[in-house]
Amino acid sequence: MDHLAAEREGQVAESIAPGVSERPLKIGLASAYDFASRGGVQTHIRELGQQLRTWGHDVRIVAPCSDTSKVDDEGFIPMGKPFPLPSRGSVGRISVSVWLRGKIKEMLDEERFDVIHMHEPFSSYVCVGMLSQSEAVNIATFHAYPGSRVYDVGGARIAQPYFEKLHGRIAVSQPAKEYISSHFESDYEIIPNGVRIDQYQQGVEPFPHLQDGMINLLFLGRADKRKGLKYLLLAYSKLKWDWPNLRLIVMGPGNPNGECQRIMGERSLQDVMFVGGVSDEDKFRYLKTADVYCSPATGGESFGMVLVEAMAAGLPVVASEIPGYMTVVRNGIEAMTFPPKDVGALVDALGKVLEDADLKQRLAGNALRRAEEFRWERVARRVLDYYVSCMNGVGRSQEVPVSSTP
């Protein structure tokens, strides 16, 4: 770990080393989704913005917002009120109000961004409205897999003129790239999501009341069908016979659906804790408290963010073999994997980790090394370099720093 720490410090120092004296960039990060709600895209934007600011860049975040009191960001610009829209087995909160056009124009005239970086640009009018009136360099990140249904019902044809206004296109993973390419053929840069690794490792204490000799198996995810909780409950009911000191902790917003409740009732499952949605601080503590992390998602994940979080916390991981997850882990190296919805294979994978201390230690060590590749200092540097490349590509080289560092 000493070698890894030295290597990491060198990479971080390189990413923030003083560069040329040209002005910092004025960057607008635009979200399609309600910024008062918790979600992967919102977290990505918030943490990318934080990292860019540490390098001296001027960042504004523009998004619909249901409650500005829940947003702690001095550079946040609320844009419209969101409403819930079912999508991919989940619910997204977006704004579709075309009446925002005038307000968006006023904001763009005032801010005069060098770069506007939109996330899921065609999922709400906020991003579309900005793109249609932007005079900046326009970049989009596509997170979704399999993506928004709007593309499958003619939305791609409607969005094509806006897509052509993009100067740069990012996909968070190969599966996300393959999906968006099937609707908008173009070149895409693959830049993964980032994680603030140190938050999962420094000064995090486990919950004392859960350090009672039980083995803590952790699940993290919303109460959406595609997260696969029912398959974990079925596997847990079988494992509990051989591992009576096993406890399942379910962390995430929402309540278990009727099918999950039926499984728990019919099998009289004991030692299952539903802790609900928690603060970031408590999330770190539950990860520190856990002995094994499991994500049995059945699909619809463009990237294994929850896996990287568990890996950063030093946990052995058991995960389903869905495309988004397999871009993050390899079976038997960083995680034990199993075919989605295969309860028997899930039982076998979890059983191997529970009974083999050497395997558990090896998976955790490999996972920690792999998680370092998603450190925000690395990921944000790639994003910033891409901004510079796109700006130079549209003839603004006289205005762009030679180096992307401040």
Which SSEs are present, and which pair or pack?
Elements: H1 2-16, E1 26-31, H2 40-54, E2 58-63, E3 76-78, E4 83-87, E5 90-94, H3 101-111, E6 115-119, H4 125-133, E7 137-142, H5 155-163, E8 168-171, H6 174-181, E9 189-190, E10 215-220, H7 229-242, E11 246-251, H8 258-266, E12 272-276, H9 280-289, E13 292-295, H10 305-312, E14 317-320, H11 323-326, E15 335-338, H12 343-355, H13 357-371, H14 376-393
Parallel strand pairs: 1-2, 1-6, 2-3, 6-7, 7-8, 8-9, 10-11, 10-13, 11-12, 13-14, 14-15
Antiparallel strand pairs: 4-5
Helix pairs in contact: 2-14, 3-4, 7-8, 7-12, 10-13
Describe, in short, the structure shown.
With 406 residues, the chain is an alpha/beta fold. The protein has helices at residues 2-16, 40-54, 101-111, 125-133, 155-163, 174-181, 229-242, 258-266, 280-289, 305-312, 323-326, 343-355, 357-371, 376-393, and strands at residues 26-31, 58-63, 76-78, 83-87, 90-94, 115-119, 137-142, 168-171, 189-190, 215-220, 246-251, 272-276, 292-295, 317-320, 335-338.
How helical, in percent, are the residues? 25-40%
Morphology? elongated
Structural class by secondary-structure content: alpha/beta
SSE run: HEHEEEEHEHEHEHEEHEHEHEHEHEHHH
| Number of DSSP helical runs | 14
Strand content: 15-25%
Give the strand order of the largest sheet, numbering strands 1, 2, ... along the chain: 3-2-1-6-7-8-9
What is the number of E strands? 15
Taking Cα atoms only, what radius of gyration do you get, to the nearest Å? Answer: 22 Å
Mean pLDDT: 87
How far is the first residue's CA from the last residue's CA?
Answer: 30 Å
Biggest sheet features: 7 strands, parallel
Low-confidence sequence ranges: 1-21, 89-94, 400-406
